[in-house]
Amino acid sequence: MKKNLLIKLMVALIATTTIFSCKKENRSATETKNGTVASVTSKNGRLVFKNSDAFKETASALINKDAGYLLNWEKDFNFTSLRSDSSASQAYDSFGFPVFYGSILNNKGEYMIADTIVYFNNGYKYLISNNDEALLNKIKKDPSLATLKFKAGIVPITTSSEVKSGSLSTQSTSLPGGGTDARYQHQFLRNGDPNSQRKFVFEIFNYVESAGQTSICYVRTRIKQEYLGGNKPGNWLPTSTESYVKKITGMNFTVGFFNTGNGTLSYVTGSNINLSETDITKLDYTLCTFQASQSTITVSLTGTYSATVLPPWNTDGKSTYTANVAW
Predict the structure, then answer these.
(1) Four-residue CA torsion sign, 66, 121, 240, 185
(2) N or C, which end of the chain is more exposed by having fewer CB within 10 Å?
(3) Are residue 257 and residue 134 in the same domain, yes or no?
């Protein structure tokens, strides 16, 4: 069964960056990949992309790459990536960036396209032209001084259907809340311990950056594990020590959107996609990315999602969950 979801966009992608890197500051590097050459440099602790096309090419090259690939891609640049700084990554977690953003942003949430500094903070993307470091510092102290800023983050999905799955029943919002459709959830106890509450979450969502009259969207699906911690009720946090197997099999999807060329309705489809990862992190897969001229897109997706915690965290064999999803 397929259900269309209306996803409200607010996306904007400032085209940016490259495919390869270099060890010395201010020194550019190029790599030919599928006939395309892109360039990038590092300067003042940031990646600098030659132009918007370079960013688009890099985004295309890095989407859905694993952590090892991203590490090898970024390690020769003379900067500290957001991905490599755990405390900075947590501070920016609310944006819901595509995974590869952790490799192109520095640990201050910045990169450059030509002479424009791109800075992310508190749900916005700020653009500072002419490499104006003084203005950037002023905006960090007083965001109202910015003349070019755009919304960025996860956009809620609207749906009226209710689906029961596992021990939880949700309706159109994620638990504990936010912009994701996380109706498929399963709560369990690690090795039967009532003080070790866990849950698996299967979700679909949309990362959007607004850019005036157009938007750029990353439609994504994810499998993650969380634990109940802290002093607040419902304070679910990402697990960071328990290895688990995540699989998606037979995934099919259709995404409809209004393109920016002539405003006609266009579609992106995928069929029989199979994914598998075994580690302590979440599985985060981008279905597609595109630029849209209107604020509504439709998505339908089906497939089998499963997650299983590995020993010694699953000695009772109950820390597992499989769902035939239909968004």
Answers:
(1) negative
(2) N
(3) no
